[in-house]
Design a protein that fits this description.
With 678 residues, the chain is mainly beta. It has two domains: 4-380, Neuraminidase, CATH 2.120.10; 575-676, Galactose-binding domain-like (Jelly Rolls), CATH 2.60.120. 0% of the residues lie in helices and 42% in strands. Strands 6, 7, 8, 9 and 10 form a five-stranded antiparallel beta sheet that branches. A five-stranded mixed beta sheet has the order 26-25-24-23-28, with no helix packed on it. Strands 47, 49, 50, 51 and 53 form a five-stranded antiparallel beta sheet that branches. Strand 30 (361-364) and strand 31 (369-372) form a beta hairpin.
Length: 678
């Protein structure tokens, strides 16, 4: 899945203006990022759907064109803290102040802006010019350390009332030179003592400085030497592990060199500093890092930038350790888009019992975009909750087709039959069937038949029964005896015949009628897997189809949209005029081999439909410098910087030009060549 743009218009130098920006996860769906936008104003954006989309930018503070550096701290990044506030510190060049606000994530309410330090000369530039960091102690105190410039304007301030007021304390700085710092809550007996990971840029040493709140003093213990850092990139990151209050520190010992190692330490205090396995060893074309801890499991993630060519073609990657840094898993990509000029990466410190994601954000220096990727993120469920699924993944783009139906006329398919090679997964259909009504009553009605008989004739009619009485003899001497006693009288009955006429049964045949009520079978089916994916390999058939109407409606389809490349062709008729009378004679060989050249201008237009332009022009050779042109449609002044330029060899005279198409009014306030000596 393509990378997601959190912000398409950050400030030009976000990579070396922000120590921490998030994402800050408050639950499995909700996160915040804080940064300075193209107008150099401090803002934040919020997601409520797990990073799929980000809301409109909300202004935190700072004057337009003047917010130079920033850092944040979330209450729950401090072990044992259950607060809901994100503490924000930032520098404003317009008033030379270090400022503070907090955002209560329970209500998305910003506190009033407070001055931490009222300065004199906040210096605009990279990490050699100014920086700050902020943290919250386990006891509740807030601390902010900073450099406004490299001329002794630095400090360390404390708030004991939740950021409402701030007071100066003993500075952590070793001198006037700007050094790199990371403030962490620490594991001291006094819960308002804190730790500072301190990278001395002059001695190339990283140390642990412990701040004693009661004594208002610092104690320092060396961690490692021979660490050659960079003023252009923050080459270290740290996170506090809640289970033991230890700090996991990652840092590069070199910038983009064959012997560059991404090293890791487990820091438990001045008496417990343990080197762990390297994340990367002897790795060129790589830089920067971001440490993140899953507080539920103590899993450690380290993200970094790496690729074909540092500063032009790199992507975002990470490795994970499940054993405290003793071993690291395989390298896993975070970014999905093609390699580009990525210059900063942040992971948001940690996620606790409320859940969230390991979803780092990174800065594209060519596009001035702040990017992330949800498909390659790692979901962390809330403690005791179900596993989290990134939704949607991939993102489905449904579209509706207005109520069509599909009816096919005569269709001819060639060849016939078409051979279709399929790879069909095993599909299981689970169903629950209900018969209604249950039981089904089936009454039936039998018509009552009637029997009709024809005439009955008895033959003979009448029936004659003749009696035949035999002759009796009486013998008369003595007793009288009947010769037949008893007297038998045979009876001869003529056999009658009964004749029955035709018999008719009505109705004939007898019909038995069943009346069955309409019943329904209701089935609830579950298809597994769902959806079933059936790949088809179909030879090129030809098909002729009659009138077609599509059913069902609406049809829902999933689109996978490839990354688009936008090619912008400037309009014809653009004209340029020289800005001022200033010219520069520049020979690339006069600078270190690592030097990078940029063109920067502050311009605006009178109308958003008229594009204001500025560029660097090679007067010696009579051509514009390729890639130097910057543009804006803003009607307010915008500071714009080109990508790194390739200047012609030899000493050449250059001038700055601005302009646009006819009909517009264009204003240029400043323009010059910027040299970053690396």
């Amino acid at each position: 899945m393509a990378d997601i743009t959190i912000e398409a218009a950050t400030n030009l130098d976000l990579g070396y203006r922000t120590v921490r920006l998030g994402p800050v996860w408050v639950d499995v769906d909700t996160a915040y990022v804080f940064y300075t936008n193209a107008a150099y104003v401090m803002v934040y954006r919020k997601t409520t759907n797990g990073g799929v989309s980000w809301g409109a930018a909300v202004v935190v503070g700072g004057h337009v064109g003047a917010t130079d550096f920033s850092s944040i701290w979330f209450d729950k990044w401090t072990p044992g803290d259950v607060g809901t506030k994100i503490h924000i510190a930032y520098g404003d060049e317009n008033v030379d102040n270090v400022l503070y606000r907090n955002l209560d994530t329970a209500t998305d309410t910003l506190s009033a802006e407070v001055i931490i330090f009222d300065g004199v000369s906040l210096l605009d530039g990279n990490w050699s010019a100014s920086l700050l960091d902020i943290t919250k102690a386990r006891g509740g105190n807030l601390y902010c350390g900073f450099w406004l410039d490299n001329a002794a304007e630095n400090g360390f301030y404390r708030s004991t009332d939740g950021g409402a007021t701030w007071a100066a304390r003993t500075t952590m700085a070793d001198g006037v030179q700007v050094d790199l710092i990371l403030l962490e809550p620490g594991d001291e007996a006094d819960t308002n003592d804190i730790w500072c990971i301190y990278w001395d840029q002059s001695t190339y040493e990283i140390s642990l400085k412990v701040y004693d709140n009661s004594a208002n003093s610092w104690a320092e213990t060396a961690i490692v030497g021979d660490m050659i850092g960079s003023t252009a990139y923050y080459q270290m990151s740290a996170s506090t592990r809640a289970s033991d209050n230890h700090v996991i520190l990652a840092a590069w010992n070199r910038l983009n060199q064959a012997q560059a190692d991404l090293k890791v330490w487990n820091i438990g205090g001045t008496g417990s500093i343990v080197a762990k396995a390297n994340v990367l060893t002897n790795t060129a074309e790589a830089a920067q890092c971001a440490v993140f801890i899953n507080q539920q499991t103590d899993d450690i993630y380290v993200a970094y930038l790496k690729g074909t060519d540092w500063t032009t073609l790199v992507g975002a990657f990470y490795k994970k350790s499940a054993d405290g840094g003793a071993n690291w898993g395989a390298e896993t990509p975070l970014s999905a888009d093609v390699e580009d000029d990525q210059r900063g990466i942040w992971a948001g410190h940690s996620v606790g019992d409320d859940g969230g994601y390991f979803m780092p954000a990174w800065f594209n220096d060519d596009l001035d975009d702040l990017l992330t990727n949800i498909a390659n993120a790692v979901a962390i469920a809330a403690a005791g909750g179900p596993p989290q699924t990134l939704t949607p993944d991939p993102v489905a783009l449904p579209f509706s087709v207005p109520s069509p139906t599909l009816s096919l006329g005569t269709a001819t398919i060639t060849p016939s039959p078409v051979a279709i090679v399929t790879d069909v997964p095993l599909v299981t259909v689970s169903s629950t069937v209900t018969l209604a009504p249950d039981p089904v009553a089936m009454p039936f009605v039998v018509a009552e038949p009637s029997l009709a008989m024809g005439a009955v004739v008895l033959t003979p009619d009448p029936v004659t029964i003749p009696f035949a009485i035999p002759n009796q003899i009486i013998v008369g001497s003595g007793a009288i005896v009947l010769l037949a006693d008893p007297i038998l009288m045979p009876l001869v009955v003529a056999e009658p015949t009964l004749t029955v006429g035709a018999v008719t049964l009505t109705p004939s045949p007898v019909a038995t009628v069943f009346v069955v009520p309409a019943s329904q079978i209701v089935a609830v089916c579950t298809l597994t897997p769902a959806p079933v994916t059936i790949p088809f390999v179909v030879p090129d058939p030809g098909i002729g189809v009659g009138i077609c109407v599509i059913t069902p409606s609406p049809v829902v389809a999933t689109w996978v949209i490839p990354t688009q490349i936008l090619i912008v062709v400037p309009p014809a008729g653009v004209s340029f005029a020289q800005f001022g009378e200033l010219t520069r004679l520049i020979g690339p060989s006069d600078f270190p081999a690592t030097a990078l050249f940029y063109f920067e201008a502050i311009i605006k237009t009178s109308s958003p439909v008229k594009v204001a332009r500025a560029r660097l022009y090679n007067v010696t050779d009579g051509i514009a410098v390729v890639g130097s042109e910057v543009t804006t449609t803003s009607t307010t002044a915008q500071r714009l910087r080109s990508t790194a330029l390739t200047l012609a060899s030899g000493a050449k005279e250059y001038r700055t030009e601005f302009g646009g198409v006819a009909g517009g009014l264009y204003t240029c306030y400043a323009a010059d060549v910027i040299v970053d000596s690396g």
